């Protein structure tokens, strides 16, 4: 890519130069207000052999011109320039951290949350996690870790992104997946129980279960069970989670709605279950939300690692 055209800043009194030798003219006062790092730097006496361009002092930075252009766009009342990839956004946020630009970092995060940058997809989530971990970007690290749950955790998926992992980042991610799996299992446990006020108690009374129970001479107490279609749906996912490897996708929270409606449709001849669904249409949403919450409440790093 060609280096971006520097933002025009009238009456600039300082130049910051990118690693690819693009000069950005800025105001010392603006840099000092945004960054304690630059505030300290600019109060130090300048070496006698410091480079001067157009009578303006120059400081060389290690960041590229695309990144510095984005950084400066947040400092001035111009259109904020957010990088076109999430990986570049992470390096931009890391630069804010490096130069102690807390308010600038918050502004960039707000832009990203508004959709100004593409969300990492599939294997990209692993690379995003590794970069955020290496740069100590905690919110981005936790968000990327949750995005990896829908993707297999295999060498084939990680690919070259495996080289980005530092220290125990990969081990922490494996342990995180295991804790999320356990949390999903606990959540499904709560839906397999039919005692009020549990959310599944509304399904007790399916004629198919009652007739089968009477034929098998099961007493009334035992007849209070979930409809078979719902019990099979929940039990199957519970068993699959219990038996699956940590490398398998943990995507139950994103596919449970589809499985629920497929199972209910196959049981459409039952007026009781159709009526319960019509009167309590939010049950699937509650199930979906509870599973999502089961994942969101799991910390990235468990107590044993703190």
TrEMBL record:
InterPro entries: BTB/POZ_dom, SKP1/BTB/POZ_sf. PROSITE patterns: BTB. It comes from the Eukaryota. Pfam families: BTB (PF00651). Residues 10-84 form the BTB domain. Gene3D superfamilies: Potassium Channel Kv1.1, Chain A (3.30.710.10). This is BTB domain-containing protein. It comes from Russula ochroleuca.
């Amino acid at each position: 890519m060609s280096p971006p055209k520097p933002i025009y800043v009238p009456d600039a009194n300082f130049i910051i130069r990118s690693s690819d030798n693009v000069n950005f003219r800025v105001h010392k006062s603006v840099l000092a207000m945004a960054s304690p790092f630059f505030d300290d730097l600019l109060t130090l006496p300048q070496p006698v052999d410091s480079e001067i361009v157009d009578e303006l002092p120059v400081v060389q930075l290690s960041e590229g011109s695309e990144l510095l252009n984005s950084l400066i766009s947040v400092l001035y009342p111009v259109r904020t320039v957010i990088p076109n990839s999430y990986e570049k956004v992470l390096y931009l946020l890391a630069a804010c951290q490096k130069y102690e630009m807390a308010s600038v970092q918050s502004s960039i995060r707000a832009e990203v949350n508004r959709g100004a940058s593409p969300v990492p997809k599939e294997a990209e989530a692993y690379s995003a996690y590794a970069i955020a971990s290496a740069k100590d970007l905690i919110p981005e690290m936790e968000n990327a870790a949750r995005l990896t749950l829908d993707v297999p955790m295999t060498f084939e998926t990680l690919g070259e992104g495996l080289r980005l992992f530092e220290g125990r980042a990969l081990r922490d991610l494996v342990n995180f997946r295991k804790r999320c799996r356990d949390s999903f299992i606990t959540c499904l446990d709560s839906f397999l129980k039919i005692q009020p006020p549990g959310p599944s108690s509304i399904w007790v009374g399916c004629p198919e279960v009652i007739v089968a129970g009477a034929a098998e001479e099961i007493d009334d107490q035992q007849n209070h069970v979930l409809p078979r279609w719902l019990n099979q749906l929940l039990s199957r996912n519970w068993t699959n989670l219990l038996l699956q490897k940590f490398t398998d996708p943990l995507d139950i929270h994103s596919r449970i709605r589809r499985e629920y409606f497929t199972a209910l449709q196959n049981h459409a001849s039952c007026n009781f279950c159709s009526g319960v669904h019509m009167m309590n249409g939010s049950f699937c949403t509650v199930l979906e939300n509870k599973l999502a919450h089961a994942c969101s409440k799991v910390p990235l790093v468990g107590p044993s690692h703190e």
